[in-house]
Design brief:
The protein has 308 residues and is of the alpha/beta class. Helices cover 38% and strands 18% of the residues. It has a seven-stranded parallel β-sheet with strand order 3-2-1-4-5-6-11, with helices on both faces. The chain binds nicotinamide-adenine-dinucleotide (NAD) and uridine-5'-diphosphate (UDP).
């Protein structure tokens, strides 16, 4: 297949390109480097089946030739990034997704949207199932991201219903691995950086809020399977191994052998109190479940951060 991947210079996008190329596909990668980096794709320079175009997907653009699939991974994703770029975040979820859906429609290509667990907001149903409609504050600081993704999901379903585009929607839960930005504020790079430097680990709130962390190769495998499937409604992709953020801080300390102390800082507004994906749909429809345990995935992640 010839696949257009938007957001290719980002953390997940670059790993997704690697997987597509490993499967024998050709990739046309688009990115405007808003939160991504050329370094994430440097190893693909000169690859015969890989082409990169610097492009803001909220602006009009064309892709020449046949296209079999369009994958939309373009969007700031870390709270620090989308709080710094709230309007760009809303634009890429709306206008950017529209342009990419139009591309898919005009080329009769399939379309994959990378949505998010943030669609569930601060969830009142636990673990989160795809049929839960969520508890999102539409005017809070995180709304630029949450509502952008909820709009993108609605637009994707409208293109499927109106134009028959073969769409897929992934609701991605917290994912980690090499090529994350050390300073993007997300908890995995933040704690690893602090632990490796011997600085205090900054736990927000009491640390009782829960998350679970999916290694990027597992996530990309789920995305790839979903893109090839006929499932039109959202599918959760994430690791169901849930822990409190305080427990996570302690595991990071143990894993890195760090003597960093733990300090408590204010909880950001609307920070979800609990989060864990119900992945029974992904298991049933895609035959997918995560395989990489936290200790296994943190090893290469630590190596990557040490190399920076
Ligand atoms: P990232 O910030 O590393 O990558 C996003 C990429 O999109 C960047 O390279 C950025 O430059 C690019 N981009 C942003 N706006 C663009 C525009 N207008 N035109 C072209 N490119 C643009 O983030 P990520 O963690 O790799 O996330 C990838 C996708 O997965 C996003 O859609 C995100 O919402 C989703 N997601 C990620 C996570 C996670 O834990 N990482 C969780 C849920 C959902
Ligand atoms: N967090 C923390 N310390 C940090 C960064 C994040 O305690 O230095 C917490 C954050 O408040 C949230 C969880 O870790 O409860 C996950 O945050 P992240 O930004 O990684 O992703 P989110 O799931 O909130 O989108």
């Amino acid at each position: 297949m010839r696949i257009v991947a938007a957001g290719a210079a980002g953390f997940i996008g670059s790993h997704f390109c690697d997987r597509l190329l490993a499967e024998g596909h050709s990739v046309v990668a688009l990115d405007n480097y808003l939160t991504g980096s050329p370094a994430n794709l440097k190893h693909l320079n000169g690859h015969a089946r890989f082409a990169f175009v610097e492009q803001d997907v909220t602006r009009p653009f064309e892709v020449e030739g046949a296209v079999d699939a369009v994958a939309n991974l373009a969007s700031p994703a870390s709270p620090k990034d989308y709080l710094r770029h709230p309007i760009e975040t809303l634009d890429v979820g709306s206008a950017g997704t529209r342009n990419l859906l139009e591309l898919a429609r005009s080329k009769q290509a399939r379309f994959l949207l990378t949505s998010t667990s943030e669609c569930y907001g601060d969830p009142l149903v636990h673990p989160q199932v795809e049929t839960y409609w969520g508890n999102v504050n539409p005017v809070g600081p995180r709304s630029c991201y949450d509502e952008s993704k909820r709009f993108a999901e609605a637009l994707t379903m409208a293109y499927h219903r109106q134009h028959g585009v073969r769409t897929n929607i992934a609701r991605i839960f917290n994912t980690y691995g090499p090529r994350m930005k050390l300073d993007d504020g997300r908890v995995v790079p933040a704690f690893l950086d602090q632990a490796l430097r011997g600085e205090p680990l900054t736990v927000f709130g009491s640390g009782a809020q829960t998350r679970s962390f999916c290694y990027v190769s597992d996530l990309v495998d789920g995305l790839y399977r979903l893109m090839l499937s006929d499932e039109r409604y959202p599918v959760n992709l994430g690791n169901p191994c849930e822990m409190t953020i305080l427990e996570f801080a302690e595991r990071i300390r143990a894993l890195t052998g760090s003597r960093s102390e733990i300090v408590f800082e204010p909880l950001p507004e609307d920070d979800p109190k609990q989060r864990r994906p119900d992945i029974s749909k992904a298991m049933r429809v895609l035959g997918w479940e995560p395989r990489v345990k936290l200790e296994e995935g943190l090893g290469p992640t630590v190596e990557f951060f040490r190399s920076l």
